[in-house]
Amino acid sequence: AYSSLALSPFLCTEKHLLHSKMAGISGFALFSFLLAASVQGDQSQDNRILPKEIPPHKAGDWQILTQEVLSQQAGVRSCPYPFLTDEKPSPRQIVDPVCPENDGDIFQGANGSWYRFQCCAHLPTGQGAKAVVNSVVPTFRECEALCALEAACVSFVYSAIKGSVDPQGLCKGYDAGGFTTTKCGDNSHDYSHLLLDPPTRPVVIKNRKRCATECPDADGQIQTARNGEIFHVDCGRRHGTEFFYRDTQASLSDCLAACAAMTSCRNADYQRMTRTCFYSTNEGPPIIDDAAFDSVRSVGFPGQCVPEPDCLTCKCVNPG
C-alpha cells in the first residue's frame, strides 16, 4: 500500500466518463480506468475535459478522489477536503462566506452576533436540538437573518443546492449547536453556529506618557483647563471647519487654554510649524488627517449633567 499518491493532470473523454458511470465502476477501478483513458483514449481536442489539478491523497481515499474529479468535471458545488476536525486557530472574518473557500471562517450576523461557517456539515449529533426555524429562502444570508430574529436560534443549516432530501433554499434553525464534525450526506448543506464571544485581536501597547500635554503622547487623552472645562486631544488631525478667530500660541496646551477662555469656542486646530491656533464653534470630532496639525475639542464640564429624580433624563446646570 502506498502512503500517498501524487496525481498528474490527466485527460478523459466524455464517452469514457459516461461508460464509467453506467458500469458502476467505483474506487480504485474507476481511477485506473480514468488513468488508462488518458493514454489510450480519444485525443480529440474538441471532446476532452481538463479537470483541475488534484492534490495528493492518502491511500484508501479513492472514493473521495473519484467524487472530487467527477464534481469538478460536472462544474457542481464541491466540499472542502480534508473535512475539518477542529476549529481553525486563526479564522478569517468574511462578509459573505462561500464553500469551500471559507470553511471554518467566521462572519457577523444581522444582529451583530458572530457565527462560525462550516461547509457540507450538519448539526452536531447527540445534542437533542429542537428546530425553531423552518423556511425556504433564496440566500444563505436570509437564512441567517431568520435565525437572528428568533431568540432561541443559535445555529442553522442552509441547503445551498438541491440535495438528496432537502430542496434548495431550505433553512433550518436550531436551539443548540457548536463546532461540528458531522458530515453532510451530500454536498448541499452549509452549517453555522453562534459564537459566544466576538473576535479579538492582540493588544498593541504604546509607550506613551500619561497626563501628557503635547503630541504625540497626548493623543486621545483628556485635559482639563483652569476653569474646569474638559478637552479631548487628537494628534495629527484637524476639524477644518470655518474658524471665527486665529492667533499665535506657543504650544497646543496654550491653544487649549485660550479656547477655554472664550465663551463661544468649542474646538481649536493647532498648526505646529507656524504656531497658529484656529478657533471654531464646531462641537464634533476632527475628521481630517493632517500631520501638520493637532487639535483639541471641548467635551463639557464635570457634573454638567445631573440626573433628575426619576433617573431617566438629564438637565444641564451652570458649570460655575
TrEMBL record:
It holds the Pfam family PAN_1. Residues 250-285 form the Apple domain. InterPro entries: Pan_app. This is Apple domain-containing protein. It comes from Photinus pyralis.
